[in-house]
Amino acid sequence: MDVQELVGNLGISAGAAVSVVVSTTVLYLSFIVLTRSLGQRVLAGFSGFDIVVVIVLGAVLGRAILGHSPTLAAGLIAVVTLLALEGALGWMSSRPRWERLANNAPVLLMAGSEVLWRELRRTHVTESQLRSRLRQAGIRSDAEVAAVVLEPTGTLSVLRRGEPIAPAMLGGVRGAERMPPGLLGT
C-alpha cells in the first residue's frame, strides 16, 4: 500500500460524510422506535441467543452506516454522530415534557399478590422471568409481594409487603391505580 492509497483510505468526500450522518441518524432513530415498540425488556437480561443477535445487529448497522468502502474518517463521523444523538436523547430525557418520548414508562406487573397478565404480555415479560426475579429478591410466595414494577431500564423491581408503600414511589408507574389500598401509605 503506497502513501496515496493510505491517505485515500483515511479521507472522505463531503457527499459521503453527509451520507454517513444521515444513515447514522436514520438507523439510530429507527432503533429507538423499534426498541420502544418492543418494550423495555428487549434491552435487559440478555440470553446467549440475544448476545449473538446484538453482535449481528451491530455488524449490520455498522456496515449500513459506513457504506460500501469504510474509511477512518467515516468511522469517526459515525461515532461523533452517534454520541451527539445520544447526548440529545439524554437532554430530552431530562426534560419532563420530552421524557415520555425518550423513555418507556415504568409498568406495574404485580399489584399485591395479583399478577397483571395483560401487562406481562404487553411488555413481553414471561411468567418465568417474573418468577425468577421474585426468587432473586428472596420472595417465597406471592403473599409476600406488595408490587413488581418493570422499570424503564428493563429491570424488575420487587417491593415487599410490610411497610406501606409511599404513593410517590409509584408516581408515573402505569397501572399504579390497581394497587390494593391496604398496601399504600398516606
UniProtKB/TrEMBL annotation:
Superkingdom of the source species: Bacteria
Membrane topology term: Multi-pass membrane protein
UniProt keywords, alphabetically: Cell membrane, Membrane, Transmembrane, Transmembrane helix
Domain YetF C-terminal: 98-163
A cellular-component GO term for this protein: plasma membrane
InterPro entries for the chain: DUF421, UPF0702_alpha/beta_dom_sf
Bilayer-spanning residue ranges: 12-35, 42-66, 72-92
Protein location: Cell membrane
The keyword Membrane belongs to this UniProt entry's keyword annotation: yes
Sequence similarity: Belongs to the UPF0702 family.
PANTHER family assigned to the protein according to its UniProt record, in alphabetical order: UPF0702 TRANSMEMBRANE PROTEIN YCAP
Protein name: Uncharacterized membrane protein YcaP, DUF421 family
